[in-house]
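WARN no homologs supplied; continuing
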Amino acid sequence: MLTSVDADILRVLGDPLRLQIVTLLAREALCTTHLVEETGARQTNLSNHMKVLREAGVVETEPCGRWMYYRLKPEVMSALAAQFAQLAASAQETAESGRKRSC
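OK structure emitted
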């Protein structure tokens, strides 16, 4: 069952730009400059979105000289994926059994 934490993460990922950022970070750690180049977003807008992703626990930061790199936290995505896998399995079982509540 999805928890309120999972629901918060889904809300965070529901924004198209944040979803794009997460998709990019799944492939490699990137700094703000890279993310601005890849997304076309303004730096201030991107920084605000990164703050939301950090506070939700979706990404972590890694200082590298004068740059800050962002990395997707795979355990968060794995936990969310596991919850959806359970929902899918339950839905499949319900569909196969024809189970429904009577009126």
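The chain has a mean pLDDT of 92.
OK
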